[in-house]
Task: structure prediction
Amino acid sequence: MTDLPSATAIQQARAILAGARRVAILTGAGISAESGVPTYRGVSGVWKAFSAKDMASPEGFARDPERVWAWHNDRRLALASIAPNAGHRALADLERLLADRGDRFDLATQNIDGLHQAAGSRNVHELHGTILAIYCVVCGKRRWLGFDPVDGLPRCESCGGLLRPAIVWFGEVLPRDVWLAAANAATSSDVFMTIGTSAVVYPAAGLVEMAIGAGARTIEVNLEPTPASTLVDVALHGPAGNILPRLVPEA
Ligand code: BV8
Ligand code: ZN
Result:
């Protein structure tokens, strides 16, 4: 069983959050782990079983679109039976609490699983896109897919071009408006939290330094230390589903 943070560390993080007027959050696969979504770099991580170069890059998709589509369909359809956990819900509670006070809350996520929105989070910036939408590689026409089945290689009804998952793959730039919203949130926040991310994928991993550089107080929630742990004010090591509900101020 993973150790839990000390009551002192929890109290420190609560005190930082209690006075917050502009909260910015970055989440990664770790916040969905307790819902049963595999992480990427852990012992049973996605990238241990599959090559990111083949499955999560435009080159890999161009080389073998059927294989990449089959892999994304499996992951997408597995999400149909997965629900948000207490960690997702705690962030939705925090957003409501801040909104009721007229304060600001931004949630930038690297996750593509839609679980923050399913938990009720509203102001979500999907830095790496979503597995639940697709777009045409030729004309860019985008549409929602949800958990609809996809047979073979789906084609655009407007131009016949090949459709692809609306995910940001390695070597692809993040959607400009989404990145700017997340960067602006981080640099104008008074509290920044990094939750359930190994903090190795850029530019998302750079948000914590941007927040620190702009004077924000910072909190990390992760099962284990990451490159961000030595940068933040309070590093809370343990499961997000246990820790986050203990940080949300009483309404
Ligand atoms: C970009 C989509 C400009 C697919 C993903 C060389 C060539 C080209 C690019 C680069 C290069 N070197 C560096 C780069 C940039 C590259 C990058 O950063 N690479 C890293 C790996 C070195 N970044 C990019 O390519 C980005 N684009 O930079 O464009 C550009 C263009 C051309 C050339 C240069 C630059 C695009 C990045 C997005 C890539 N797409 N995924 C898919 O998801 O299917 S990345 C992938 O990693 C996921 O999106 C994931 O979200 C992301 C980060 O992973 P995490 O979410 O942190 O998950 P991870 O498993 O790693 O960690 C989980 C954590 O949770 C752990 O710390 C664990 O301890 C913790 N945890 C587990 N359980 C719990 C928990 N914590 C709390 N509670 C629990 N219960
Ligand atoms: Zn098209």
